[in-house]
Design brief:
The structure holds 2 protein chains of 2 kinds. Chain A contains 4 helices and 6 strands; from the N terminus they run H-E-E-E-E-H-E-H-E-H. Chain A is an alpha/beta fold. By secondary structure, chain B is an alpha/beta fold. Chain B has one domain. Classes of the chains: A alpha/beta, B alpha/beta. Strand 1 of chain A pairs antiparallel with strand 5 of chain B, so a sheet runs across the interface.
């Protein structure tokens, strides 16, 4: 390792006896360690800082495709409410007085989706996502994420609430959405 | 063994990485995006960024300085406005902006520090996506005219309300754009999840 020699040069030599200082060698290992740590940090930081993107395809508004009607018994409707809560109903249309449950995002919602999905054969299960005016962009991204995590093949993002659904939310949850 | 040479190389590498770390773009408004497990990276070029702040303000930008100039020229021609060379130059270095066209010239004529300090009110937009007051549709149209390969990236803030997002989507759908990328932060998928 290169050394820094800090031994003092010869003193003034004025006759006084000075104790000769032992030469000190500075060990540069810690500085080199820090240097490598910083390099590693910058390498990782520049590659990780690229934001990722989530693709979103929406159907063409101008073309109205005729799709086969979906049976309410195969559908789970998730309403994105306010304060990062999601409310869902399963198996019945809003007009048939279904049971409505409330979950937070994350693990609870995932468990709810998977539980309901098991009740229906995989290719028939449909999730309808209805954001409300109090929900945030984050809620929408989170629910799309949940669709990717739970590997749901059929889901739809619908931005209008039917009058039945509004009534349901109002009656059962006292939410005016 | 004399390790001077290795340490020199290490410091050179470090300097290289420090210098090539990209500067974060000075956005018109701070936007904190949500995170998602998607592993796809945002493309670097040919990208149109539409930002949506938590107050529902819409910001717009494209990459490539020359394309920004072309877009500005197209927009000016379509709206009967004209810009001086100084204003065009100021515009071409902005990565994104959010001012209505009535304030655009005044905004471009500010000094850079004044521009950074100015609170941009956002580009006017409406709920139908195609109304007269909706300036976002003009910008999107003129940007695509300048660069046909542009891909749309939406950068929304966590707290932006859904109706604002719906209006942006409506504006884009009115122009027949149905595929977008939502810019999100990186998030690790739950344990045991495999990407099929």
């Amino acid at each position: 390792m290169s050394e820094i020699d800090t031994s003092g040069g010869g003193g003034k030599g004025d006759g006084k006896v000075r104790a000769k200082k032992a030469s000190t060698k500075i060990d540069m290992t810690p500085m080199v360690d820090l240097g490598f740590l910083l390099i590693t940090f910058f390498i990782l930081a520049t590659t990780l800082s690229k934001p990722s993107s989530m693709t979103l395809n929406v159907p063409d508004k101008t073309k109205t495709e005729e799709t086969e009607p979906i049976k309410a018994s195969n559908v789970m409707t998730i309403f994105l409410g306010k304060d990062n809560k999601a409310h869902y109903i399963f198996g019945k249309a809003a007009s048939e007085d279904p049971e409505i449950k409330t979950v937070g995002f994350g693990y609870d919602l995932r468990k709810a989706i998977l539980t309901e999905a098991q009740k229906v054969p995989a290719d028939k299960f449909v999730v309808v996502i209805k954001p409300t005016k109090e929900s945030t962009y984050r809620n929408v991204v989170d629910i799309m994420d949940e669709m990717a995590i739970t590997k749901m093949k059929r889901y739809a993002l619908v931005d209008e609430l039917m009058p039945d659904e509004k009534k349901l939310l109002k009656d059962k949850l006292k939410l005016d959405l | 063994m004399d390790m001077t040479a290795m340490v020199d190389v290490a410091f050179l590498l470090l300097t290289f990485f420090i210098l090539t770390a990209q500067f974060r773009v000075q956005d018109a408004a701070t936007i904190e995006t949500p995170s998602s497990i998607s592993g796809i990276k945002v493309p670097d070029k040919d990208i149109m960024t539409i930002g949506l702040s938590k107050d529902g303000n819409v910001y717009f930008g494209i990459d490539n300085q020359q394309k920004r100039r072309d877009m500005l020229d197209n927009f000016a021609a379509a709206n009967g406005m004209s810009f001086t060379e100084k204003e065009k130059k100021a515009f071409s270095i902005l990565s994104s902006f959010g001012v209505p066209k009535s304030q655009l010239r005044a905004f471009l004529n500010l000094d850079p520090e004044q521009r950074n300090a100015f609170k941009q009110p956002g580009i006017p937009i409406d709920s139908t996506g195609a109304g007269v007051g909706n300036e976002l549709k003009d910008w999107v149209f003129n940007a695509r005219k300048a660069n046909n390969d542009l891909r749309i990236a939406l950068k929304g803030d966590n707290l932006a309300k859904f109706p604002s997002f719906k209006n942006v989507l409506g504006t884009l759908q009115a122009q027949n754009i149905n595929k977008f990328n939502l810019i999100t932060g990186t998030e690790a998928p739950p344990a045991g999840w495999k990407n099929e």
